[in-house]
Design goal:
With about 110 residues, the protein is mainly α. About 35% of the residues lie in helices and about 5% in strands.
Length: about 110
């Protein structure tokens, strides 16, 4: 996992790119459309349970993944696939909540 520093606002990046191309913000129209379906404002690289292990480089870390118990995984995948293929969204969410304790649906 790389420490990328502080997040930046996309609009600030857009304004910087406009200035780098020799223009000023306002000369080029910028349309803010909002999130598209499935997009997130924040990306979680690790769960709180996983944690990070330091390396000799101060901005590089190693994720400590949780152990996944493989026994019984295939029937769970089959149940999830069946719910998805039948179009039962509520069942898919219920199964995900059951199988992945840290899962939080978007809506």
């Amino acid at each position: 996992i790389l420490d990328m520093g502080q997040p930046i606002r996309i609009l600030d990046l857009v304004h910087d790119l406009i200035r780098l191309s020799g223009m000023e913000p306002g000369e080029i129209p910028v349309e803010i459309t909002g999130l598209r379906p499935g997009e997130k404002l924040y990306e979680e690289l690790l769960t709180a349970e996983e944690g990070l292990l330091a390396t000799k480089h101060e901005k590089i870390f190693v994720g400590r993944p949780e152990n996944v118990v493989m026994a019984g995984l295939e029937p769970r995948i089959d149940a999830l696939r069946a719910a998805a293929e039948s179009g039962d969204g509520k069942k898919v969410v219920a199964l995900l909540r059951e199988y992945v304790p840290t899962y939080t649906p978007m809506s």
